[in-house]
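Hi Q.,

Before the meeting this afternoon, I wanted you to have the iron/sulfur cluster prediction in hand. No need to reply - just skim if you have a minute. The sequence and ligand are here:
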Amino acid sequence: MLDHFRDYYTSLDPDALFVPDLQKREFGFMPRERREMIRHMAFRDLGALKSYLISLPPSHVYSSTALYERPSAPDMNSKGWLGSEIVFEFDADHMREFKGDALAKSGILTEEAWNAIKKRTVELIDDFLIQDFGISSSEIKITFSGNRGFHVRVRRQEFLGLDQEARRRLVSYLNASDLDVNGLQNLLGKAKKRSLEVVLSQPGWMSKIRRQMREKNCSLQEAVDALALDVDENVALDLHRLIRHPSSLHAGTGLVVKPVALESLSSFMPYQDALVQSSTELRVNMIDLLPSGQFRVGDLEVSKTLAGRVIRVQRSVGIFLILKGLARPAVRVP
Amino acid sequence: MSTAEALKKYPFLFTQGALPAGSLTNLGELRPLLPKALARSRQLLGLSLRRGLDPSQRKYSDEREMAALHALAFALVTATGNRRMIRAASWGFSKEVELSLMSDALHNPRGFPEIYIRVGKAAGIEAAFNWITQRFEMSLLSYLVLRGIEGDPKLMLPQLSLAGGKVAVPPNVFAAMVSRVLRYSLTMKLELQANELRRAELDPDVKAGAETLASEFSRRKGEEVDIQTLSPVESLFPPCVKFWVSEMRRGVNVPHQARFLVATFLLHLDYSVDEVLRFFSTTPDYDEGIARYQVEDLAGEKGSGKKYAVPRCDTLRTLGACTCREGLCVHMTHPLLYYRLSIERKLNGDKLAGSECAGSLSRLLHLARPRRPVCP
Ligand code: SF4
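Predicted structure with the ligand bound:
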């Protein structure tokens, strides 16, 4: 594991660690042997950050969505908050679609599940952030979280200073919790079908509902439930949030927290594209009780047929399987 | 009526808000205005039969005098130190403004957009009128920074037209928006002024006027005084109170010490027993009879006859009812002190005011709606 992390950070191009205003961000690290986070760190440039990562190397690397005058000040009050980017997190944990999915429960997502998460992420960006909020695509950055979802980071200068109440309104728009479904129901009841056009003609939620009801021939409530986005409120509202730093490694999977261009999001496959490429191989012993379902990691098709077998795989694939509890390092019998 | 005349109905356009606390220690040249100001305070508090803007105001040729009368009327309410009265007066005023705006739209179809825009601007809303769509338009950012509009579904973003970062609302919704925003900012200003006045030596006439108002108001307490259920400054409550309130709203059976904290805290902000009970009504074991007796006891209206104090932070920490250790709460000694300091921070434009430990409180105002199956 240590080699995996050190080799990765050593060969990493420091530019991959770029985030705007690096010097104004607080960094946090979870060291490998401790359960306590090192916080209130700051770096003057990407080179210094990279050197630090090689020297530890930490299990998890976080940086703040907030910008501070003094990011390394030891308490939040004296940091001098300058503003925070808004981050919307889509994670399988928070998505209705995956409740009760056996594989998802064990922390693995199938290609189908990834497609559903990506579809929701695209909807967030296209239908809400760009179409409704008027945010341009250049102000939006997507990052694979390294495990089970995506971070969508919005960096618009005038939104940086928004307080929590303002952010809550954005989240409540996305997850429809501010939508007055009962009021709308009454209105529709009174207006009858004929007037659907009028009631639901205005841009924003109303026209989305109209489209959904027409296309899927479903009820108002069903349309709302299908359109509402399960973004994590805690992340979006937190003005001091530390989130995984782009291009760092996730110690729960060994995968890269990978920035993804909007145009390539639909073709991005985390278990292929976020693997650390290396020529080193690893022998692992697959556990006997593999969860039902099938998924692909790197070149390996994982299914119940592999249960109990010893296999040789690319190091990052082996580390992923071990960290997910699907395999153990194979011990060589002398 | 010309636009200029119409604008006279909105005296806050000519004043910077509440009177400075200094003028209440010595009324000076404002003294002759006192009787009229008292009458105006009664109107705002819903104590006078006649609601709406006083037609006698039209007699004032001097706009500054009109603004001073208006500010003095509020100052009299503030001088009572009673937060419930402050909220009632802010509510009364904001309702008047909304009605006036609606009547302007009816009687002045060509000129009303200008009035709306001027009044909106004075309330802090930057908007323009689109003659083609007949809607007021504002940027998403201008909408997001508005405070005090929560609780009114028609003002919430999903109900509004939103495209390309532009929010558009019809005139009646804009009038309601102005009214809500004014109510919020006025309450904040007046609550802060009430804090300052607690320590001040008031002008004897102001004191007497405030006492008259307070006793009239308390006599009418229990009658329909249609004030907002929740103070707009609820977001500035200390994290512990916000957390336990949110738990109660979720129907969680919260511990006794948390209930004690919430009830004593609200009672100290002059919430009525009925208002406090509304907070408890969602707890699973709620029994109105028992709860009423207990809250009345805490308020000093039953039992021992003594009003219970809000517990100090160190007590709450020991009891496990303290829920935050960051920002102001690192060295905080009392939840009421947190509240006062947060109001001051907010008024000084500090966007982080009241945000301590908010990550864990994010569901405060919004409980997850039960979901139905997704669309086929
Ligand atoms: S420090 Fe005091 S005010 Fe802050 S959460 Fe704890 S008890 Fe409440």
